[in-house]
Amino acid sequence: MDVREALSVISKEDLEILYALEKYSNRYEFVPLEVLEKSTRLPLHVLERSLYKLNSLKIIKRQSASFLGYRLTIVAYDVLAIVSLMKKGYLDKLGEKLGVGKESDVYLGITPSGKEVAVKFHRVGRTSFRHVARHRSYKLESSWLLQSKVSAQREFAALRELSSVGAKVPEPIARSRHVVVTELIKGAVELSEKPPLKDPLKAFQDVIETIDKAYNEVGIVHGDLSEYNVIVNPETSEAYVIDWPQYVERDHPRAKELLRRDVDYVVKFFRKTYSIPVETEEVYEAIVKR
């Protein structure tokens, strides 16, 4: 069951249980039934009926080895985030899935005014803990759900700062838990698809200028930049840099190393794919000496 299906079957009582499970998730791996009864104040027969339903639908997980307890699944966390965004007026509907990444799912969202937006669910747990720990500069939380929340917090903060200086990134709109809502870049495709571009040089300049603004005006380095986290509109050749949660601060010991690597990936891709005659060192030096 995905988040859209779950939203269609969730009742008010179900939500009360999900809120209680989230509240006590830092204290218990599986929240005991008696704690849920006390927290939700639902009649026991109503509580047990909802728990049975949620567990059957795999929205929550049940364990009964040493005691009867329950915990959230990622679908439950998805539901809590979307319900929050709806209550705050940022979303009215959640539409079709637009894409799946290593550590995210992106859906189409519709605002109350009918505007289309991008809704990104962070999925840090898709990679192994060792891989995540090695490629993240920030402290990891103990739970995959909390790690995804931290990832979303970082990306939303980075996008706000980058947008404020005119960098080519999707404009951030809202965040709840592990979900980030941004503007939808219509007509854009992943640069890895190597789409024909009317003006490849413009796309290249958009990416490099964003790297430059991030480093010199915001004080961060993307740290994982490649053709897989750049989207481009083939008609306008406008390019946008996405996927920012793993950024490092400019004063990080590896910042310049990661900056050089980001620049190198971009330069080599545009040189090979679109015959842009540029060299890594020339672009890198222009950024660090600005």
From TrEMBL:
GO terms under cellular component: cytosol; preribosome, small subunit precursor
InterPro entries: Kinase-like_dom_sf, Rio2, RIO2_wHTH_N, RIO_dom, RIO_kinase, RIO_kinase_CS, WH-like_DNA-bd_sf, WH_DNA-bd_sf
Domain called RIO kinase: residue spans: 63-289
The keyword Iron-sulfur belongs to this UniProt entry's keyword annotation: no
SMART domains: RIO
One BP term from GO: maturation of SSU-rRNA
Listed cofactors: Mg(2+)
Keyword annotations: ATP-binding, Kinase, Magnesium, Metal-binding, Nucleotide-binding, Serine/threonine-protein kinase, Transferase
One Gene Ontology MF term: protein serine/threonine kinase activity
Record field: catalytic activity: L-threonyl-[protein] + ATP = O-phospho-L-threonyl-[protein] + ADP + H(+); L-seryl-[protein] + ATP = O-phospho-L-seryl-[protein] + ADP + H(+)
EC number: 2.7.11.1
Record family assignment: Belongs to the protein kinase superfamily. RIO-type Ser/Thr kinase family.
Protein name in the entry: non-specific serine/threonine protein kinase
Biological source species: Ignicoccus islandicus DSM 13165
